[in-house]
Amino acid sequence: MSLKEEFNKIKEDFFHISKQLYDHPELGDEEYESMELLVNYLRSHDFEVETGLVDRPTSFRAEFKGEKDGPTIAFLAEYDALPGIGHGCGHNLIATMAIGAGVVLSKQLKDIGGKVIVLGTPAEETNGAKVPMSEQGTFDDIDVAMMVHPAGESEESGATLAMDAIQFAYTGKAAHAAAAPENGINALDAVIQLFNGINALREHVPDDIRMHGVISEGGQAANIVPERAVAQFYFRAEKREDLDEVLKKVTNIADGAALMTGATVEMSNYEISYDNMITNQALSDAFTKNLKSISPRPVKPAAKPGGSADMGNVSQVVPAIHPYVGMNDANLNFHTTAFADQTITDDGREAITSAVLSLAQTGYDVIKNKDLFQAIKEGFSKK
Length: 383
Fold this sequence. Notes:
six-stranded mixed β-sheet; four-stranded antiparallel β-sheet
């Protein structure tokens, strides 16, 4: 039975799972019901499931092995939602696409061999589990890793920005702002000087550098010299090595702001850092070819990177792709209720169909086509 025939037998299951996730959104590292829904379905199709990888309770690894040796294909599922919005980034579709591709491809492994793995990766929006997974060996036995993200329009896999989320906590000394200001050390002044220094730095960094922040704590009352003030920034770049160089300069600025005001500063990561995404071109070309043969929607070339994702860390340790499959609305914006609502329309279901079949066919091609598999490995070794 072909991949499409296998899909058509169970496609209503996938539409139902996507709707269930939409109806019951859960935040990162709290996706207990979502995880249970996904792993129970995978178990019903004879996948062996392990949960709680890398000390993340809502993560999972589901494995189905063929009767012959061959490449190991991983499909990555995300299923965390956004506060107040729900699945405004379409993770209900991402999860469904991953388990759908895994199950559909598993039906072919008796004949072609190989292994298919579905990885449940919590908290992409905040503390992406793919980062510790990449660092702690989860991908050591995996040959290729793939995931598909829904979007307004279909787009080839491209790059993402490396990202560090840095907190600057300044400590000064409280005093009465009118009666004895000379006895105080103003931590908020230090944060303001930090912003001024970073703004001055913008003139002297490459065009791809992004630096954007907020003051999350700025004092308690106007008549008290602020003893504590905190700023949180995202710093991004197209390459990790460029970002590391920028952060050296930012560290000097932060220390200088402390020295200017007499405050002390503590820098820390308030979210996990993400590396830049390196698309494996041979794998991407295979997926794009399959998507164009399956979907009636055009596929755009990869756009210039504008955001960050923990899939970037995966791409540093295994050949990987992160393409987009469209939902027939070029005006859709990520992280909105309109985006979430589009996932449960007929266009959302069409996106599931296109992504599942394209992912499964690409996995099939990697297992069967030795030349493709070799090109993927060679491309990764040269990345």
